[in-house]
Design a protein that fits this description.
Blueprint lengths: L1 H9 L19 E10 L7 E13 L2 E10 L3 E14 L5 E13 L2 E18 L2 E14 L4 E11 L5 E11 L6 E11 L5 E10 L6 E9 L1
Keywords: Signal
């Protein structure tokens, strides 16, 4: 795992990404992502985590979206959000802000959830083609719990090759609790015809003893 992460980082020595935290969708353009991750623990059943993510360009300076995740009916969340541009720094990248509201649950109990995110993104040209890097810093308040601080990093290539690398790292922290983290090195397979991109990778996180296998489908329309 460490060698694979190191290789992906080294190969990025930034084109607009499909998952675009700091970028807004063009008016009328949409993007969806469906993902499933399976974890297998010794002596336990296989556990699944699924997610649905979508964006729609309502106006040139306003993107609306949905972010939902479910852990086999045990816990999960769903948040609707609005993204607005904040600043553009030419060669220094760009900033965007998101405000979201929704709910999260643990088994049959549910609570309100609010989220504010500041995203930075930058495109680049590298030896192996064009790509992007993004950082998302968020404050997430769940009405029955403490304020959660999150920092996510994404780096990937978006050249015209059939296969491109992608690395996603997510962290979250609540004071007095251990830091949670996950790392997802993946390969993106671009369809020859149509707007689909298939993602195959692995996920290693602080809650699982073994890495999980991840499949995702991105679609732009």
């Amino acid at each position: 795992m460490a060698r694979l992460i190191a290789f992906l980082c080294a190969s990025l020595v930034f084109s607009t990404p499909a998952v675009a935290g700091a970028w807004l969708r063009e008016k009328g353009a949409s993007f969806t992502s469906l993902a499933l991750t399976a974890f297998s623990e010794p002596g336990k059943d296989i556990r699944f985590k699924s997610s649905l993510y979508g964006e729609w360009g309502m106006r040139p300076n306003l993107t609306l979206g949905l972010d939902a995740e479910e852990h086999q009916d045990l816990y999960g969340h769903a948040v609707v959000f609005a993204r607005l541009p904040v600043a553009e720094f030419s060669n220094g990248g760009r900033l965007a802000a998101e405000l979201g509201v929704g709910a999260h649950h643990r088994e049959t109990r549910a609570w309100a959830m609010y989220k504010a995110t500041l995203s930075w993104g930058k495109g680049f040209q590298a030896r192996y083609g064009s790509g992007w890097m993004a950082a998302d810093a968020a404050l997430e308040y769940r009405s029955h719990d403490a304020l959660i601080r999150k920092l996510d990093l994404t780096v990937g290539l978006s050249s015209h090759r059939r296969v491109n690398p992608l690395l996603q790292i997510e962290t979250s922290y609540v004071p007095g609790r251990p830091l949670y983290w996950s790392a997802r090195p993946s390969a993106m397979f671009r369809s020859d015809s149509g707007p689909n991109t298939w993602i195959i990778g692995v996920e290693r996180n602080a809650a699982q003893d073994r890495p999980g296998l991840r499949f995702a489908l991105w679609r732009e329309f």
